[in-house]
Amino acid sequence: MLVGARQGENATVNEVRDLGNKIKPMMDQGQSLHVICQNHPEIEVSERTLYNYIEEGVFQDAGVSITCLNLKKQVNRRIPKKRAKEYAKRKDRSYLKGRTHKEYQEYMEENSYAHVVEMDTVYNDISNGPFIQTFKFRKYDLLICILHKTKTAQDMLNGILYLEQILGEDVFEREVEVLLTDRGSEFVLADETETRENGTRRTRMYYCDSMASWQKGSLENIHLQLREICPKGADLYALGLTSQEKAFLICSHINSYVKKKLDDKTSFQLVEFYNHNMAEALYAAGMVQIPADQVTLKPYLLKEDR
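User: That's the sequence. What structure does it adopt?
Assistant: Structure tokens below.
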């Protein structure tokens, strides 16, 4: 069932209800819609659309008690009648065709041994960066970080191409058979990601459902280790994260950390055992194995004098 279909709105009742339940606690804490949108890039409608939903009673129709009284400020906000009835999504969603999480599950049922890599972006300052494009290789619990100054869709595509350059086409096709990510606006270049300019297939790209980061919970878990080095709220530039070499330094330490779930092995050790060529490619790119007693998961790892 569609909510507000007479106004041309195309979100289902459940989607609107989930969205309302997500933003209401933050609104109750006094946060503005602008701040909520900035802090939660996974929200897939624009700030303007959220205002429209509230003013037209869409959230209330879906069973969520959000009204104009919940807005932090409502000063001289005038919306043209025509525009007030346009509840368009933030961007074109055609790239999702054939790439939803349901279709990912169907592919994995038929290809249960396919190697899956989860992709995301980690950052503290959405205006100034830096932005860390993260790749989690499930088989090895391996983390690769690519550093960017901005997080455009082209930046993320470039990061994927850089990863392919590091691994080589053959290793990439084998180890990144499936690429699973969220629906962030920086990950919309699915066609360009999947297919090379010469028409050959690079990978298969799939997207988690809206506001369902738990569907790539494996990546979220390894982000906890990343956050030990790059804590939330910190100025990552001031911390020392200023180059790709520093990003690889983070990878070197996290991937040299012994993990109980890997039978007390490191990610690097697993890669060396299962795919020696991949391990050599990672080392050639600048990553190194860190002696066990020297592994550091603290912010001072990135200081210039290390």
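Residues 1-10, 79-90 have pLDDT under 50 and may be disordered.
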